[in-house]
Write a structure and sequence with these properties.
17 strands; six-stranded parallel β-sheet; Rossmann fold; alpha/beta; globular; seven-stranded mixed β-sheet; transferase; 20 helices; rSAM; 40% helix; pyruvate-formate lyase- activating enzyme
């Protein structure tokens, strides 16, 4: 039997009751944002919990989110022992995979026979690397996890052939078995409402500055665009095997407005949530959908604020047809643009076609003039293949001309599963293979003319120049008539000053070298991490 060849599954074979424990481990925190803002709810856990409970009998789900609960590793080990789980699952973002793997080691230390499952971006796209290097991982659930996890647990429970379960990876003797990828969930309306009861929902961002008491919510999955570096498309798109190689097909799937409103109703009335953090890769991709959603929110009289990833060209379309005004009335308060680069040629190099940089300038000008209550933030990508010292200076000048409140400059990151990763691997561009450095702050590959160190230095100089070369617009933001913009400007001033002061003190004490603005991208270890 297949089950005899895979002894791990014997721990739940024939069991009427299976206990699943999902864990987000202790993390180091980014100091540029309020500690509370580091604790945004991982939406995958309540979504998986709700789906398991809807589709399976005899299933119990427990979640330990160590960040808001401030659970350190010593306490976590004792809590795993207390729960006595049959299955432990983790699904961390790439820079934190080592933390999730540490959790699975703790679980195996407590009970070598329990089942450990890893999911998320990294393990989905580099399953053989994970299975070859980390023996504490029994299974990988790839890509979209709801149906795959149900199929896997039911197969383990009944002793069915694991090779028939799509989108998983496991060991059979000395072999690593990858099954064919399964289909994506076509209708997101078939998904149950997230199991918010299982989460410590009032612990998320309780004293946040960027996201005050914000709860994560999702209206769509995937994206029709195919930016070469985008991890969203790589995880939420459709995957098919083609001549022995995995092929990624960009897909966009959206919940109906009524489905999303049902989730907002629960968050608003049951939990008293007044601020939403949309985790959609491109929240404003569908103007008609947004029009319907915002009209319904306004008609219900909700007093909401929200943060969202938006495309500048779509925002221009929404302004033209009158939907942007409705979005702001309904709660749109913080826009994060993917400005990325300052020229159409550069955009094409990273697969962001159809944009030339002018869209960001136009969209931010409209927000500044007509909707000043909306905080304007944008990311910019450094270290593209053609990057030079001159092009970095041009990018800095472009970003400072965009009328944004805060700029985030990130070295181009080749995440596994993206077209950029495939090209970088093929051409040997990648020089850093420590995946904990894949945090969008540490360059992992050079450009054609700049080293990684030069890209890093140039990126930090952009942060410094953004404030130092235009102090008056920033200072005016400190006294904005709009609370959210005023609060965020004060917070960023405090956060940067705090980081610089700490770095200076530690350097004077001889405990580290002074890094200046570079220190804002170094994660801090929380005091409770080891407790």
């Amino acid at each position: 039997m297949e089950q005899e060849q895979h002894q791990t599954g014997l721990s739940v074979l024939g069991k009427d009751h299976i206990k699943v424990l999902f864990i987000r481990p202790p993390y180091h925190l980014w100091p540029i944002i309020n500690e509370s803002d580091n604790f945004l709810m991982p939406l995958s856990f309540p979504c998986l919990s709700a789906y398991l409970k809807q589709r399976m009998n005899g299933i119990e789900v427990v979640v330990y989110d160590c960040l808001p609960l401030k659970i350190g590793y010593k306490t976590l080990f004792e809590m795993i022992k207390f729960e006595q789980p049959d299955v432990v699952g983790v699904g961390d973002s790439l820079p934190y995979i080592h933390e999730g793997l540490k959790v699975l080691s703790l679980a195996k230390e407590f009970n070598p026979h329990l089942i450990t499952i890893a999911g998320g971006h990294f393990h989905s796209h580099l399953p053989r690397y994970t299975m070859s290097h980390y023996k504490q991982v029994d299974f990988i659930v790839r890509y979209e996890g709801e149906q795959v996890l149900v199929d896997l647990l039911e197969a383990l429970r009944s002793g069915q052939n694991l090779a028939l379960v799509p989108s998983i990876v496991y060991r059979q003797g000395s072999d690593i078995i990858e099954t064919e990828p399964g289909p994506v969930i076509e209708s997101l309306d078939t998904l149950p409402l997230p199991d918010y009861d299982i989460m410590p929902i009032h612990k998320y961002s309780p004293f946040g500055k960027l996201w005050p008491r914000a709860i994560t919510i999702q209206g769509n999955r995937g994206c029709p665009h195919f930016c070469s570096y985008c991890s969203w498309t790589a995880l939420e798109g459709e995957h098919k095997m083609d001549k022995g190689e995995m092929r990624l097909i960009p897909r966009l799937r959206a919940k109906s407005v009524s489905k999303v409103l049902a989730e907002i109703d629960v968050l608003y009335y049951k939990y008293g949530i007044r601020y939403l953090f949309w985790v959609d890769g491109t929240w404003n991709i569908d103007t008609k959908w947004l029009d319907e959603l915002c009209s319904a929110i306004i008609s219900k009289g909700y007093k909401l604020g929200w943060w969202a990833f938006v495309r500048a060209d779509m925002l221009l379309e929404q302004e033209k047809c009158g939907v942007l005004e409705k979005m702001v009335r309904a709660g749109f308060r913080h826009a994060l643009f993917g400005g990325e680069r300052h020229s159409e040629q550069d955009m094409k190099l990273i697969g962001k076609t159809g944009l030339n940089g002018a869209e960001l300038l136009q969209a931010c000008h409209i927000l500044k003039q007509k909707y000043p209550q909306v905080f304007r933030q944008s990311t910019f990508v450094t270290g593209i293949r053609t990057e030079t010292k001159q092009s970095l200076q041009q990018l800095g000048a472009y970003s400072r001309s965009a009328h944004i409140d805060f700029a985030a400059y990130h070295p181009l990151m080749p995440y596994p599963g993206t077209p950029l990763w495939d090209e970088a691997q093929k051409k040997g561009w990648i020089e850093e293979h420590d995946f904990s450095k894949y945090d969008m702050f540490h360059p992992v590959m050079p450009s054609e003319t700049l080293s990684r160190e030069e890209i890093s230095t140039g990126t930090q100089a952009l942060y410094q120049a953004f404030i130092m070369k235009q102090p008056w617009p920033y200072l005016r933001g400190l006294f904005s008539a709009f609370q959210i913009r005023r609060r965020l400007h004060w917070w960023f001033l405090f956060a940067v000053s705090r980081v610089l002061l700490r770095d200076m003190v530690l350097s004077l004490l001889g405990r580290k070298q002074f890094e200046g603005f570079a220190a804002i991208n170094k994660l801090w270890k929380p005091s409770w991490y080891d407790s």
